From TrEMBL:
Keywords: Membrane, Transmembrane, Transmembrane helix, Transport. GO terms for cellular component: membrane. This is MFS transporter. It is found in: Membrane. The keyword Endoplasmic reticulum does not apply. It comes from Metallosphaera hakonensis JCM 8857 = DSM 7519. Residues 14-431 form the Major facilitator superfamily (MFS) profile domain. One of its GO terms (biological process) is D-glucose transmembrane transport.
Length: 450
């Protein structure tokens, strides 16, 4: 029993430290919503410059997501997460001392590099050190920390707004950035990565720290999987890996094009369109939406290893579809109670997202790819996710102007229906399976679909 408790404590500590990267993911994407109000005044930004400052972190995230994968497979999960912590620190300090717009944008791009890397490296590490029965809950802690990071950024903006101290809004991210880099320094490397690099004895020692039993069998399973695989970008498009890649990429796209970041980035704007005339009330409503996001993510953690991935995804997208069509309908009829309905619809939409599509996507891309290409494949899926994020953030204002509020939300609702059909047809259930068993399941699925 004492040994079991020690192993359990190690897993929890590793999960918390690694998930700090996800906290920074949420903080750095959310903090700009308040800071930009003061930045555009101080630097006299044009609308185009304002848009570029806001989206700069997404540019960095795109680069970080696609380049981080090869480094994760080459240098190891641990080192890459440490480097992402350093990027977060630099990305916080540079905007805080920026004297011009190029310096500010450069800092935000650096922060984005950290965000893009951490968005896949953190859940990947947690998945590879977690026992199968608890992996879903532990990996989903990353999504919980993202939601907490967003709420913390909103609250930070609210507290510092009276003093217009936008520099402090950025600078505060140094603290968790330092905690991430320092904490990971004391963590072991992923045992699966160690086996891939033929450092078998080190892998065995790590597994003895984090498993109660079955260490030799797990090492054998990992070695068997590696023996059957090649290690290159070409392997991403081999028949078996292609099945997992299609699932991962389409889930990455669906997570974004169903509209979640229109709420994260534009919630105050949506609420003002719905009739909230006061900016402060709209921001307060946004904080409330963020809190609901956190609460529902916590609930998802307790359900993801009990109910499974597929049921949560289907329930999540079904609820999102209903709330999106409801929101569009009330914009269409222009009800006098529109402001209240809009707020309730947004809260419902975020709640359904948080209980399924939010955490399950990041969990699945850490589970479904073969070990030899797991870093590259997870990186590619994260890159696609950030690309879709960027496109949605960029096109939402134009959609509102060109097709109207009602049809904009109905478009997202139609995409949600398509996503449900895709999940029912193609996404496998991975609850309780080892990462090696998941590969066997996908290989069998490919053969049956061929």
């Amino acid at each position: 029993m004492p040994q079991r408790s020690k192993e359990g404590t190690f897993i929890v500590i590793a999960t918390i430290i690694t998930a700090i990267g996800s906290l920074l993911f949420g903080y750095d994407t959310g903090v700009i919503s308040g800071a930009i109000l003061f930045i555009k005044v101080q630097f006299s930004l044009s609308p185009a410059e304002e848009g570029f400052v806001v989206s700069a972190v997404l540019i960095g995230a795109l680069v970080g997501a696609i380049t981080g994968g090869p480094f994760t497979d080459r240098l190891g999960r641990k080192k890459v997460i440490i480097y992402s912590g350093v990027l977060f620190i630099i990305g916080a300090l540079v905007p805080a001392i920026a004297v011009n717009v190029p310096m500010l944008v450069s800092g935000r791009i650096i922060a984005g590099l950290g965000v893009g890397t951490a968005s896949f490296a953190s859940p990947l590490y947690i998945a590879e050190v977690s026992p199968p029965k608890a992996r879903g809950k532990l990996v989903s802690v990353s999504q919980l920390l993202i939601t907490i990071g967003i709420v913390v950024s909103y609250l930070t903006d609210f507290v510092l707004a009276p003093s217009a101290n936008w520099r402090a809004m950025f600078a505060l991210a140094v603290i968790p950035g330092f905690a991430l880099a320092l904490g990971m320094f004391f963590m072991p490397e992923s045992p699966r990565w160690l086996v891939a690099k033929t450092r078998i004895n080190e892998a065995i020692n790590v597994l003895k720290e984090i498993r109660d039993s079955g260490v030799d069998k797990e090492v054998e399973q990992i070695e068997k999987e590696l023996a059957e695989e090649k290690k290159s970008w070409k392997e991403l498009f081999s028949p078996v890996v292609k099945t997992a890649l299609i699932i991962g990429v389409l889930l990455a796209i669906f997570q974004q094009v169903t509209g979640i970041n229109t709420v994260i980035y534009y919630a105050p704007t949506i609420l003002q369109l719905a009739g909230f005339s006061s900016a402060s009330v709209s921001i307060l409503g946004t904080v409330g939406i963020g809190i609901v996001n956190v609460i529902m993510t916590v609930i998802a953690l307790s359900l993801i290893d009990k109910l499974g991935r597929r049921p949560l995804l289907i329930a999540s997208l079904s609820g999102m579809t209903v709330t999106l069509f409801l929101l569009g309908y009330f914009f269409l009829i222009g009800s006098k109670s529109l402001s209240t309905v809009a707020l309730l619809s947004l809260i419902g939409y975020v709640a359904f997202f948080a209980i399924g599509l939010g955490p399950v996507f990041w969990l699945l891309i850490s589970e479904i790819f073969p070990l030899s290409v797991r870093g590259i494949a997870s990186s590619f899926a994260a890159f696609v996710n950030w690309t879709a994020n960027f496109v949605v953030a960029l096109t939402f204002p134009d959609l509102i102007i060109n097709i109207g509020k009602t049809y904009t939300f109905w478009v997202y609702g139609i995409v949600s229906i398509i996503a449900i059909i895709f999940i029912i047809r193609y996404v496998p259930e991975t609850k309780g399976l080892s990462l090696e068993q998941i590969q066997a399941l996908l290989a069998k699925k490919f053969r049956s679909d061929s």
